Amino acid sequence: MTSPTISQTVTDVRRFPADFLWGSATAAYQIEGAVAEDGRTVSIWDTFTRVPGAILNGDTGDIACDHYHRMPADVALMKEIGLSSYRFSTAWPRICPDGGPVNRKGLDFYSRLTDELLAAGITPWVTLYHWDLPQTLEDAGGWTERDTALRFVDYALATYDALGDRIDHWTTHNEPWCSAFMGYSNGGHAPGRQEGVAGIVAAHHLMLGHGLVVEELRSRGATAANGKSLGITLNLTVADPFDPARPADVDAARRLDGLHNRVFLDPLLRGTYADDLHADTAGLTFQGRPWEDRVLDGDLEIIAQPLDVLGVNFYHDDVPAARPYDAAPADLLGSRLVGPERSRQTPYPGSDFVFPRTGRPTNDRDWEITPASLTRLLQRLHDDYAAPPIYITENGAMSFDVVEDGAVHDVARREFIEAHLHAVLDAIDAGVDVRGYFVWSLLDNFEWSYGYAHRFGIVHVDFDTQNRTLKDSALWFKQVAAGNALPL
Ligand code: BGP
């Protein structure tokens, strides 16, 4: 007897709203390779991957998934999986090499990709900045300089002018928290600067760039009435104290929420920075000045432009304990993994926490699996921030997958995605407007600090042969997307 499929057991399913988008996401530097082709210049990640010890096994994105040369075949894979949308990023150093004038050849690649997607019936969803700042702009100060936000507008407009006739969904930034705080506070990501409160300066300029782009695109007719949708993607978390009876832990959770969630949500959705963010960072300086010095009159109005959608990336919640906290390393999350040492510096200026194990199951990355927190997060965005329609623009799990007899039995990933899809449905049932879900990632790829050792794809990539194998999770996702429903 064959096992029942979704269509055979129509009563035993939980349905998603009509027109729910089923997608998968990637990012340029993580998959494209071809780093020196057709005029592309060096980005901060090309530079950072050369820093000894920065990336596990010294991996780089030089070749990655060789997607730049294999794009049509990869789009065919998306079609085979039945994706209704594909979220990718454009590479700034391809389109505006060295942050300068437009490079037609760089744009052509994304134009061909867009046409290929549309021909396959897949809705393109573009992200303008997924962390690959041209090195030349970093050399001039990077995101701690206001001018970088202005250069971002030039690049964004060039991209929109070339692709806006065919692409409706535009995201300015992916996870500006990582760009700002991993890039400029703890240095675990490119450009690798460990400059404390510089992270908030960078966050402000990233958001300023976002707001300026939204303003300019609106004036070019990118409005909902014209079928265009503009947004930003944030990696948000839910912060709970490890010991609710310990006041220092309660304070740690509040601080983490401030320096991770509200530092973006408040300016973007309320046009303000919270009082406790100012208080928690009082006395910290970057280049001798407090971060607030870089917030000029009118900036918050620009940042708080109304958005059509909010992208939410979610991997796990956070349950901090305040230091000093006495625990054996094995009792702390992440302690078993050999990650780059620099990533362990606090990315939270003025605050430092540890993350003790709470006893919940973990995945191969040693991240606790916390789907109920996704429901809480979505409800909070709805209740406290009156957020615009939400798309889950990334969610997924790392596992050390292997190909056996032509298949990859990634049960843990399938279960992870399934649990989080139920969490999304729980939020929808509670009245939150969630309109799509993009699994991270389409392909195993260059996972930043973790290089190629850590696999997130629903498609396995053999990095020696570039052979692709659909994992069991992809076959399952195909069924769910086709039925627009989860089996019970
Ligand atoms: C997000 C990024 C993705 C992706 C994923 C897993 O932060 O937007 O680009 O890489 O997380 O990341 P990592 O392997 O670095 O933890």
Q: Layout of SSEs?
A:
Layout: E1 13-15, E2 21-25, H1 28-31, H2 44-48, H3 67-81, E3 85-89, H4 92-95, H5 104-119, E4 123-129, H6 135-139, H7 146-163, E5 169-174, H8 176-184, H9 198-219, E6 229-235, H10 247-270, H11 275-280, H12 299-303, E7 309-313, E8 321-322, E9 353-354, H13 371-385, E10 390-394, H14 411-429, E11 434-440, E12 459-462, E13 467-470, H15 472-483, E14 485-487
Parallel strand pairs: 2-3, 2-11, 3-4, 4-5, 5-6, 6-7, 7-10, 10-11
Antiparallel strand pairs: 1-14, 8-9, 12-13
The chain binds 6-O-phosphono-beta-D-galactopyranose (BGP).
The site of 6-O-phosphono-beta-D-galactopyranose has 15 residues, from loops.
Structure description:
With 488 residues, this protein is of the alpha/beta class. Helix content is 37%, strand content 13%. The protein has an 8-stranded parallel beta barrel, surrounded by 5 helices. Strands 1-14 form a two-stranded antiparallel ribbon. Helix 14 (411-429) links the parallel strand 10 (390-394) and strand 11. The model is unreliable at 1-9 (pLDDT under 50). 6-O-phosphono-beta-D-galactopyranose binds at residues 27, 30, 174-175, 178, 235, 313, 394, 440, 447-450, 454, 456.
